[in-house]
Amino acid sequence: MAKQKFQSPKGVKDILPEDQKYLQRIQEVFSHIALRYGFDRLDLPVFEETALYQRGVGETTDIVEKEMYTFLDRSETSMTLRPEFTAGVLRSFVQHGMASLTKPVKLWSTGPIFRYERPQAGRYRQFHQLNAEALGELDPVLDLEIMSIAWDLYDALNFKGLSFQINSIGCPKCRPGYLDTLKAYYKKHFDTICDDCKNRIDRNPLRLLDCKNNGCQQIIQNAPMISEHLCEECNDHFTKVKLYLDTLSRPYAINPRLVRGLDYYTKTVFEVWADGIGSQNAVCGGGRYDGLVELLGGQPTPGVGFAAGIERMIFAMQQQKIEVPELQTPEIYFVSIPDAKVQIIKWIQALRSQKIPALMAMGDRSFKAQFREANRRNVKTVIVIGDEELKTQTATVKNMQTSDQQQIPFSSLMTHLVKKEYY
Ligand code: HAM
Question: Mean pLDDT across the stretch 215-225?
């Protein structure tokens, strides 16, 4: 058969060993913060029935119209690889009767997300999100809490140059009136707007404000703003969110053009933008979705949440030269002659059972090659067992940082190594 080389699919990225320290650091920090805010972890399937996303995310969104990985399973049911967490979290909330739990029910999740987007730096077809949802509470303090999680996350990771963008996009009471005004305004400028916008006027008018086409920017600038059309309830909610943010001295910008790409939002929406990652600069986004649980078959239950893109965060951290701790490297490496292997496999087993990372050279290689490998792996201690050591039953223990050497009898080697503080 002809030799064939495979590449990862377009827009799909391996997270290589050298980038794992970022992934691990981000996940570790997020799971601690989630715990601090009283969130429980929820793991969800990677695929769900397509109808869940059509209904949850919205038929006229880019995600549903153009970006879902949808397939028929063997019983001809249409399934979709999850393009986001929120709809799945709410499906699980309804299915498992979580509405009867003490509210707000707070759930966090993490894992891969799939969107058939045009790949570019910071935009992939498979990426990972950290996601948090809080359900069952209308209080704007919960909006603040969700935003604060994002804040604490980026703060703990030492992000610089972040900008918090917030807006309110109203509710089913006040938004339709605003959308009529917006559509009327756009119809007046029909000849100047791009084809996508012409299409959006009737299908998804709020997204008109989100158009990236140069020719539409002036029209967007002069468009009526939803903040002037909010009903009393939405206005009051937004005023409180801002008051709470001010109370905690959180810097933020009110962005009247921020509308988000998913249909379920009501009232508060927000994004965090980071310096240094170009046009794909949203490291996270979220907001309130007070009608979504009901739309997905549950009792009316308000909710608010957000998701952060892990690859974009890694990219921004690398651009901003943010230091993260190196992953733990093996502590101990055995350099030996093949005859010593029976003894060494027993020691290695004993060390690992004491949670001490230990490795040995494989095959029959020169000491020079084995030391090279030990250096490459950054090990702290090398134990040499050559002919002489076997004869005298005494190991040579070398500190790789200081090059100091000690002779330790086999009989006390384990006690000598285990008493060191490795954790
Ligand atoms: P989203 O804004 O679509 O919101 O995605 C959240 C984050 O995922 C973005 O800010 C970005 O960091 C990352 N992201 C999105 N698309 C890509 C991509 N193609 N490649 C790399 N990263 C990407 C949601 O998904 C909502 N479910 C958030 C939410 C939760 N709202 C309420 N609860």
Answer: 94
